[in-house]
Write a structure and sequence with these properties.
Elements (H helix, E strand, L loop, with lengths): L9 E5 L4 H12 L3 E6 L2 H9 L5 E4 L5 H9 L7 E4 L15 H29 L3 E6 L12 H21 L4 E8 L5 H5 L2 H9 L8 H12 L10 E4 L11
Parallel strand pairs: 1-2, 1-4, 2-3, 4-5, 5-6, 6-7
Helix pairs in contact: 1-8, 3-4, 4-5
Bound molecules: nicotinamide-adenine-dinucleotide.
Length: 248
């Protein structure tokens, strides 16, 4: 059966070796894309890519701006689907106990890494005169504040501003830029949040954590024909967490 994407359309997923990125890479490939699984953990990226027909792996640290530029400039064909998904969690401390190192570590990957990825993706697509779809994995932590996670929340609020600005700039060129805001998804990153994980189970109206596959379909929609008129949007997939803001 044919998928929803043009057969062989070049796609890249950063942080694609595990968790949400891996599920998105699998789903985009199933829809017809030729997927590059990019991750700082090159071995894990290679293992993941080997399970997806036609996929290739790339060792890439998104905090290295020059490496990100090379990854896009040297790709045989421009990536027409770009998923800026690589991210890290935070240890769970209040602002007054947050070290400089923790602040810069989290912002370095979750904000600066996304900026480098979006900038390189946009330049290559504009240079080639191609349309494209750029999708950022933000978070509901970028829409609602959360205690003891300030570097993470700040990074996610910031990438939503970044993607919306870029969406306005690139819409006339046919390059659409959107965000996905998952709630609590069962991944290694989610486990880093510790206490929050235990609290999450009871505060999700749907009554369970999401699995990575629960969120992957929205990326495919935003990358495909049904996303053709959507830009500057953030799609929340949280099992009702934000709808339940007053804790009914
Ligand atoms: N899991 C959740 O509940 C949840 C909720 C909302 C948003 N998110 C976001 O989803 C994205 C993916 O998270 P996940 O939960 O799948 O985590 P994960 O830890 O399972 O996967 C993250 C991947 O990113 C890679 N990575 C980390 N730093 C990198 C870097 N500098 N360069 C390239 N790759 C790097 C890791 O090696 C890993 O493979 C993140 O942006 C995260 O903030 C997760």
């Amino acid at each position: 059966m044919r998928g929803s994407l043009r057969e062989g359309v070049p796609a890249i997923v950063t942080g694609g070796a595990r968790g949400i990125g891996a599920a998105v890479a699998r789903r985009l490939a199933a829809e017809g894309a030729a997927v590059t699984v990019a991750d700082i953990d090159g071995d894990a990226a290679a293992r993941m890519a080997s399970t997806i027909a036609g996929a290739r792996a790339l060792q890439l640290d998104v905090t290295d701006a020059a490496a990100v530029d090379r990854a896009f400039d040297e790709a045989p064909q421009p990536y027409e689907i770009v998923v800026a998904n690589a991210g890290v969690g935070t240890a769970g401390a209040p602002v007054v106990a947050t070290s400089d190192e923790e602040w810069h570590r989290v912002l370095g990957v979750n904000l600066h890494g996304v900026f480098y990825t979006l900038r390189a993706a946009g330049r290559r697509l504009l240079g080639a005169g191609l349309p494209g779809r750029i999708i950022v994995t933000a978070s509901i932590a970028g829409l609602a504040p959360e205690a003891d996670a300030a570097p993470y929340c700040a990074s996610k609020f910031a990438v939503i501003g970044l993607l919306r600005s870029m969406a306005v700039e690139l819409a006339p060129h046919g390059i659409l830029v959107n965000g996905v805001c998952p709630g609590d998804v069962r991944t290694e990153l989610h486990a880093e949040f510790g206490v929050r994980e235990r609290a999450a189970q009871s505060s999700i109206p749907i009554g369970r954590l999401a699995e990575p596959e629960d969120v992957a379909g929205v990326y495919a929609m935003l990358a495909g024909p049904d996303g053709a008129y959507i830009t500057g949007e953030t799609v929340v997939i949280d099992g009702g967490i934000l709808a339940n803001a007053l804790g009914a």
